[in-house]
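I have been asked to look over a protein record a colleague put together. Alongside the sequence sits a line of tokens, each denoting a local backbone shape. Please read both lines and tell me whether the tokens look consistent with the sequence. I do not need a full report, just your reasoning and any doubts. I have pasted the whole thing underneath without changing anything.
>
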Amino acid sequence: MNTREVTSKYRFNQWTEIIRECRSSGQTISAWCAEHNINPKTYYYWLRRVRADACEALPSLSDGKNPIVPVNIPVPTVNTDHVNQESSDIVVRFGAATLEIRNNASATLIENTLRALQNVR
């Protein structure tokens, strides 16, 4: 790696941290930039570069390496008149997030949700 590449990577990493700090501050971007003597145009330039890099790092959904796994849901054998219709048929917990899916969810919704969950870290 030459000096130019190292410098570019260093700046990119610096701006990634600056963007994280700004976003976690609770302030508007313009107020935060004014307080830290940063030109908002410069901030948005680096924000665009950081976002583009993050998008390129995501795995492609169309490469065939992320197959959808079929889930067989057994049909209840009890009288469904007494079953709470608001209860979820599938509950997925991922850290602090909880995903609840009901039997009447469309196959498309379930498929898209599972695809999205593959990219959660």
The helical segments are 3-24, 29-35, 40-57, 107-117. The CA atoms of residues 32 and 106 lie 43 Å apart. Strands lie at 90-94, 97-101. The chain has a mean pLDDT of 78.
